[in-house]
Amino acid sequence: PPSTLVAECFGQENGYKTYESPSLTADLGIDVSSHQGWIDWQAVAASDIDYAIIRAGFRGYSDGGTNQDDYFTYNIENAIANGLDVGIYFFSQALNEEEAKAEANEVLEMVSGYNLKYPIYFDWEPVEDNTARTATISSSELTRCAQAFCRTIENAGYEAGVYFNLSIAVHLYQLFDLKDYDFWLAEYQDVPSYPFAIDMWQYT
């Protein structure tokens, strides 16, 4: 479906972007992983932040091994303990449906016992390195990987979503086949230009 976001409803408050219309007020979240290092979650909770999307793990782009994020347990436990809603993402380099399902099952083990208010996202991104094992993956193969990951997540009772930027949306995913899942768009602009409906916008 087309986007219903209205450019005039975007604003700025306390250094963060806002969106408020008669029918929709956006929540504000952060995306975190071990790249952010140690996070003071009390300070996060005392700010305007409502939720956090936390990296559970990743698959290596050259060796293909899967790894839990070094800060995953610390981040999810402290985010929840300080009253923030949480969602999850896994940085995938899956080559086929079997690998995508295996990634989803690893994430399900990691989040067992935690209360998730936001989806578990499939975050597959192209890697510009000549050792990247995913360099030749096709659009149809990648879309099947996303479907396999999201189906596995939903079959376990969680919401599932797919992360992408404009380049991935245009050149890689067959997004019509993924329309039943939440869409997380990364587009670093004042207002998103993506013309279709999204559930979360990463603006910086």
Walk me through the structure.
With 204 residues, the protein is α/β, with parallel strands linked by helices. It is 26% helix and 25% strand. It has helices at 41-45, 72-81, 97-111, 139-155, 166-171; strands spanning 10-13, 16-19, 29-32, 51-59, 66-68, 85-92, 120-124, 160-165, 182-186, 200-202.
Helix/strand/pairing class, anyone? Answer: alpha/beta
Number of helices: 5
Question: Strand portion, in percent?
Answer: 25-35%
The average pLDDT is: 96
State the order of secondary-structure elements, H for helix, E for strand: EEEHEEHEHEHEHEE
Protein traits:
single chain, 204 residues, alpha/beta, eight-stranded mixed beta sheet, two-stranded antiparallel sheet, 5 helices, 10 strands
Strand-helix topology:
Blueprint: E1 10-13, E2 16-19, E3 29-32, H1 41-45, E4 51-59, E5 66-68, H2 72-81, E6 85-92, H3 97-111, E7 120-124, H4 139-155, E8 160-165, H5 166-171, E9 182-186, E10 200-202
Parallel strand pairs: 3-4, 4-6, 6-7, 7-8, 8-9, 9-10
Antiparallel strand pairs: 1-2, 4-5
Helix pairs in contact: 3-4
Offer a quick outline of the entry:
The chain is α/β, with parallel strands linked by helices and 204 residues long. The protein is 26% helix and 25% strand. The chain contains five helices and ten strands; from the N terminus they run βββαββαβαβαβαββ.
